[in-house]
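Our collaborator T.R. sent over the components below with a one-line note: 'Predict the complex.' Nothing else. No constraints on interfaces, no templates requested, no preferences about which chain binds where. So this is a plain run: every listed entity goes in together, and whatever single assembly comes back becomes the starting point for the next discussion.
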Amino acid sequence: MIKTIPLSALIGLIITGVYFFVAIFAGWIAPYGMAEVVGDVWEPASGAHLLGTDNIGRDLLTRMIYGGQTTIFIATAGTILSFVTGSTLGFLAAVLGGWADQLLSRLVDLLMAIPSLILALVILAMVPVTVPVLILVMGLLDATRVFRLARSVAVDINVMDYVEAASLRGEGRLWVIFREILPNALSPLVAELGLRFIFMVLFISTLSFLGLGVQPPLADWGGIVKENKDGIIYGIGAALYPAIAIATLAISVNLVADWVLNRTTSLKGGRG
Amino acid sequence: MHPIIKLIAQRFTLGILLLVAASVLIFGLTEALPGDAAQAVLGQAATPESLANLREEMGLNRPATTRYFEWFGGILQGDMGVSIINRLDIAESVGKRLGNTLFLAFWAAIVSVPLAIFLGLLAVRYRNRWPDKLISGVTLTTISIPEFLIGYVLVYFLAVKLGFGSALAMINDSMTLWQKLQSIMLPVMVLTLVVLAHMMRMTRAAILNVMQSAYIETAELKGLSIFNVIAKHAFPNAVSPIVNVVMLNLAYLVVGVVVIEVVFVYPGMGQFLVDAVTKRDVPVVLACGVIFAAIYIGLNMLADIISILANPRLRHPK
Amino acid sequence: MSEAFVRVRDLKIGATVYPPGEKPHDIEIVHGVSFDLEKGKVLGLIGESGAGKSTIGLASMAYGRGGVELTGGEVWVNGRDILKTSKGDLRALRGGEVTYVSQSAAASFNPAKQILEQVTEAAIRHGKFTKPEAEARAIVLFEKLGLPDPQNIGRRYPHQVSGGQLQRCMSALALCPEPDLVVFDEPTTALDVTTQIDVLMAIKEAIRDTGVAALYITHDLAVVAQVSDDIMVLKMGDMVEYGSVDQIINRPQEAYTQALVSVRSIEHEEKQPTSDPVLICENITARYKGTKFDVLKDVTVEVHPGQTLAVVGESGSGKSTLARVITGLLPQREGRVHFAGRDLNPVMRTRPREDLRELQMIYQMADTAMNPRQTVGTIIGRPLEFYFGLRGAEKQARIQELLDEIELGRGFQDRYPAELSGGQKQRVCIARALAAKPKLIICDEVTSALDPLVADGILKLLLDLQKIEDVAYLFITHDLATVRAIADSIAVMYQGEVVRYGTKTEVLRPPFDDYTDLLLSSVPEMKLGWLEEVIANRKMESAGN
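Returned assembly:
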């Protein structure tokens, strides 16, 4: 499989890998301390500060590296939470059917009838904004989308003759879920995993930008924009670096997800 | 009764039910989560006595169901209560801001809808050739950057570097329409970019889906010109999916407005909501949440109703 | 010397393929085909799937579907080579001089427009008729094609008429602009046999009355024998044999043509019923959840050990529902299923494993009946493991034994379903059913998705296996030729009821009830003039009444 990997997916994989590497080893890679004031306000880029300094004189590259760590950590944790809850409940709804399916599906319909951002804002107005709370809120709100996908994929597979053949053979429910449905549902879900991760990155960045996400002095990409946005009207582009970081990460993950999805469809196409 | 009327009535009822359920959900969340309005006003350091007093004063000790019906009944009559921060009537504050938000969303829609459909058609016409690839490359990028960052990128390069448009979008009643439009030029551009990507991709997919139908081949084999194939056979069937796409994206637009208003310090509902959340002004958050949910549910309902109306099988039953 | 109206010389057609995991590349799918066609004559193009017959049909309109490209040769229509003509001239040709009738009328009509508008569109657009003239002609055609209420049927939308009616409307669409050539691409394949015969006759008469030239594309030699003057047999993009209909049907020269002509002529001696049936369905009545309509009404049938009961009927007859009741997927409302000396519980989930093992099922679509992520070895091995606890070498040996029985060689164990041909897939499904050592196998339309020669192979295999394993079949099908080939007893179903039931000779011996008569007489026979005979008989009968 690796041999046939297209160039675009390879680039995507490499860039994504680099981002995760930097996020994990931020403490070793970052040239200065996360909240350390090392210079003047908004110093331009120089040998000592490759991206210059921020609104209170911290090294911007350091802030970006730590910011990436926070953003990627929260997004990853949120994605995992949303996937585990969403796909488990989605598969259960599809296989059990009946009232369990009705109850879960109608609840998800209701949650999805309100825009996630609005619902998140309502919740964050009531509870203290901490990292675990953010992960929980974003992960559970996003689980609705994973639920819908997982359920529809599983429902499609559930009506296949080979699933009927397995139940006619007398196979138990666990066999049907893990051996007949899951292997065939994996590829579309993996592709969706990438898209959900991007959405999480955008979501947490937006919340932080609005001042309702990661709280200072902790750095994250949305927060860096908020801290440095006043510089923009003076022509200081410090607030724009996160744009580049988010966009390259998101596009890379997209490229990988596209590849996974295409591989699935070509597998299907080859069946005939 | 024509079955289509029945279907539309059903969809309408479902919309109303969803709206009521959404209001219960939003109200329920503020009840179920730790902390309440009194706590929010006084902060974490408040003494139990002062909390109890304030709760008594605000009527928070009565059962939640009673307060829900009072609250939702009030909203239906245009009474949204008062802000706990500045004691101003919420309905009054919301009224003007909602107008501003809709003004912004309206102009963003006016620009983005025709543009998205045009680009979608262009991408289909030159499918898999460079115009299609260019368009999908650009849209992939705009989908990958959060709205607020697109906003700042435009401000930085257009307003600051080139002196085009204004970094702040202030509008007030004394301005003429033209002045208002000049003021909101940049936010409209950002919103257009943001929804354009989604809308164009979905339009492209919808048209491609129609163009690959067997009846398009029939039309081609009748020797019709490309124009006639598209105008007479593809278009009538593509209208419904495209309108659906537009409606879904307008719903999306309304949410995008929230963030963009903060970027451009625009006096609309989004800014109002975010402020209220930061200050934990629960009644305002509740009111804004329900209004956004209502707009979103309403547009989605409209999208479904249009699909029902456009379906020939439903319009001409057996 | 006058030249033929349609003259195709050395036509070569290529296509771009996108195999998974490989770079897209071009292949040739038609390798140099030549034929002539005069006005008023019908040329039948026949072949199995992948023969290139539809592609050649569309080439007569200089049209390539998807990535198909006309790479070489000449196609002369009305005195010009249409592969070299201008775009404007091509538009005049398509829909004006040459028209097309597709297999699926339901998909080929625009759902948003009235039928009449679509039928007359090409004639008006090409300036052949004014709108009133075209509409008048369409109504005449509707009448000629035997559509009910020809004056008003055109005002309906495509979804408001039945499949058979829409297929006739498609023919009207093709004939309306008074074309010189009509391409019929499997126009009756999607229809039930009793509907097919009427549409076939309507098309034949319409061709005769309008004097057009026609290309008639189908996989069914018996059908093409009824409507064609000449026949061309195609295989994998090559011409195999080309001659008059009489020569091809009565004196085929090539081995492949001979095989096609003698298809479904398997002889099967009927076995006598033994004393104890393995399966008894007694007074079964069933309906689907949430409906108020019985899809099975008081059905009673028996299957004897080692024998085959064929359940025949058209779509909607309830024959597949019977299978669902027997397997317990749809519990009956009334009646009982008696199997191997015991009553079966109506609900599948509550049946003991032994009941499930002894009653196996094979599906119509082998594609969806196998998990695409499991190898052939896993698919066949699972029942061995599940029912008999076989493991390791013992299991492997048994898998190989089964593979030998279904005539697949070594090396198939590790293949995935996607790597098998249609016939091979169905064989693996048979092996999976046999692995359970069942007493009865329900075969639900197991050959109807396959090409005739492949289907024949499967039927022969099933008959052989029945002798070896002594297994009984409940064989569900809409195809009477299959029934003749395989059945010991037959149940004819119509609208949820068994209208005729008995041994094969009893059921197929006159006098018939009306429905069985209609069904039997509608099955195309590999014989010239059969269609006229049947229609004449029917007219006499109705005159006699």
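Summary for T.R.: Residues 38 and 54 of chain B are 6 Å apart (CA to CA).
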